[in-house]
Predict the 3D structure of the following.
Amino acid sequence: MESKYNKAIHQDPFKLVSSHTRDAAILNAHKIPDLTSRRYPKVRIKWRKVASDFARPALLGYSRGYARESAEWKAFTRRLLWTLLGGLSLIGPTLLMVLHGGLRTTLATASACTVAFALVLALFSKESPLTLVGATAGYAAVMVVFIGTSSS
């Protein structure tokens, strides 16, 4: 798939270039605005061997590269959000258990935060139930270890 992506842009059969007469006719027939005119001078040459925007191609709408980059950015921001929330879900209860010591407070905090963690995973994750149980068990194990080390 990557080799097809890296293929030369001038060999892309789905790219319409307004400098080609037939492509300009297709754009005009369907009343599609020429978005390349803002970035490149409009040149009307009947049959060009190389498009006028060959060095920096401009596609109508969104290109595959832009779609891929935006999908990667969206995935990155989603991962970043979840890692920050995961860190806060451990740091918040830990601070509460340290600042307000006592076995009852520690157990209630660990239990409530484990249930809240499980609910958030169930609401926003698309993983299988077995994966969610594993993640919740891991979170509960970290809380239990913290209770054991803080109470001794």
In short: The two ends are 56 Å apart (CA to CA). DSSP finds five helices and no strands in the chain. The CA atoms of residues 28 and 49 lie 22 Å apart. The mean pLDDT is 77.
